[in-house]
Amino acid sequence: MSDNETSRLVKGALLLSIAGLISKVFSAVYRIVLQNLTGDIGFYMYQQLYPLLGIATMLALYGFPSAISSLTATEIEKGKVLTWKGFYRPILLILGSFHIILTAVIYVSAPLLAEMAGDEHFIGLYQLAAILFLVVPAVAILRGIQQGRYEMAPTALSQIGEQLIRVCIIIVGAWLVSQGVLQIYAIGTTAVLASLLGGFSALAILLFLNYKNQNDSHEVVGVPNLEEAVPWKNYLRILLLFGIAAAMNHMILLLMQLADAFTFVPKLIASGAGEIEAKEMKGVFDRGQPLIQMVTIIGSSIALAIIPAISHQKLKDQKKQVTNYIQTAMHVGIFIAAGAVLGLFIIFPEVNQLLYKNTQGTSELRLLIVAIVMSTISIIGASILQSLGMIVRTAVFIGISFVVKVCSNLILIPLYGVYGASIATVSSLGVLLLLVIIELYRKLPGMPLYRSISWRSLAAASLAMIIYLLVVQGIFSSHVMDVRILLLVYVIFISISGAGLFLFVLLKTGGLTENQIKILPKSEYLLRIYKGRKQP
Fold first, then answer.
1. b/e per residue 87-118 (b: at least 16 CB within 10 A)
2. Would 196 be classed as within a structural domain?
3. Phi and psi, residue 119, nearest 5°
4. Are 491 and 300 in contact (CB under 8 A)?
5. Any stretches that span the bilayer, and where are they (predicted)?
6. Which residue among 66, 296, 353, 499 has its CA within the 20 to 30 Å range from the CA of 214?
7. Within a domain: 97
């Protein structure tokens, strides 16, 4: 790979990371708005469909485009021309056949899925959602081919455009429900239609950009090799095995919610809860999902900005430098996750009241947010393993975590209700974290991943932040809880100031080394604080 291609690849990876961050922030925010407009029942209904819709999105955004880009880059590097007969048609046939079968399976099994979810109203919604998978092949092929040519802008722009369409339609639908124009179950139909229209908008953007790029391109087209056999077996292996594995590595939190969608309400009802009560409790439990997602993506995005510098070859050639990258990614993730969990645990009553208009479920959700630590570190660790070529293995780990979540839900929800679901999420992500750590130590023998962490600095920063938050909470909390605008100002102030204090103490006590700080974004500002500790 030439220096120019490497530069385009790194810039493209950064562009995709930014687009992903923007889209995931949108996803977290609009679900909070949805709950405010439709209540916990409406939120429950959306969350029952969200995992299925999310799986289609992940396949079209991360899984199959990654596999297709790998095939595209390989063929181009060999000097081959991508022809309809030898490349595009086989890929379209494989993906098209797979998704037609998947759509048919979901459509036919919709009554069973609705029965598992404990609500027969979802039969039609699951059947409608199945249609979304038919859009995936075309979107994935257009994204994957452009990525294989190191053109990441089409994927990034189509992702943001798709999410904007989805968000706008869902919020409008939720508002119509809140005004009584639509019935509460219409939120499910709105969610599916929003995803379908979002998918078609992504397809339209990709077709436009692909047409524009072809017109602007001045590449010299070579002559394809005639009579060359299509490598069907290789295409099948890479597209289905690699593609699905790559998608699963972006579905950690999504799979946790999928398990809850089919076990939470039925198990609560079986244990004696009423149907409406069980659905409301599921809606309350799901309040924690946007918060977990928001903090996890912030923590992992900062750390994952370092990941493109890691590869199996670089580990051999530049071991010291890559070791520093890996340690920095893990350390930053641990510090952000730990600080966020401690801070949220203390101010969660105010956050719950601000975002969802009451403090229902605060104690159960305080337990659930512990999952932030496991999810953030697991995602970073799994991303490091993927960079070292272990995509399928990390997908297997995620699959094991999903099975643990399902089994834990079946056992713990009848015993402890919402607490049981929280324990199940934390436990399953804990299993995933353990598997990832074991594999990291196996893959990177002798590398001090966790022994090199300054636990003293983390303890000092945590203690300073906890004391500060408790003091400010004790003085102001009771005066702002009943006025939402004052509560908003309070939560923003205490969150930013608490995080700032945590970071300040962490750097002052040497939580990160100078070399680690230099890798991070905006390192010049962090270095000023760090170097200040060395001055007499």
1. beebbeebbbebbeebbeebeeebeebbeebb
2. yes
3. -155, 110
4. no
5. 12-33, 53-74, 86-110, 122-143, 164-185, 191-209, 238-259, 291-310, 322-347, 367-388, 395-413, 419-441, 453-475, 487-507
6. 66
7. yes
